[in-house]
Predict the structure.
Amino acid sequence: QVQLVESGGGLVQAGGSLRLSCTASGSAFSFDHMGWYRQHPGKQRELVARLTRFHSTNYDDSVKGRFTISRDGTKNTVSLQMNSLKPEDTAVYYCNAAFRDLDYWGQGTQVTVSS
């Protein structure tokens, strides 16, 4: 059974940095893409950044130039380096991995940015 385990969330002041990491276990395949989503209180989950196995990337406009996604395909690990954090980045961040029509999610990690 595939499991995604996230780490690296926490509390940081505005302008600071955090790095989120996610490792997938239990898969015998390499995912088509891996990425990060976030969910603000009372709102729908939204894409933050995604990286395909062919290294193409998608970023939400609000994080372009501040966040960088990277992936170690051999280890099925994806990381998100978040710089110049803003209070509006405060949310629960979820790791996502997809293979064909299957979607997998981590349990979520809280990121809080204080002003």
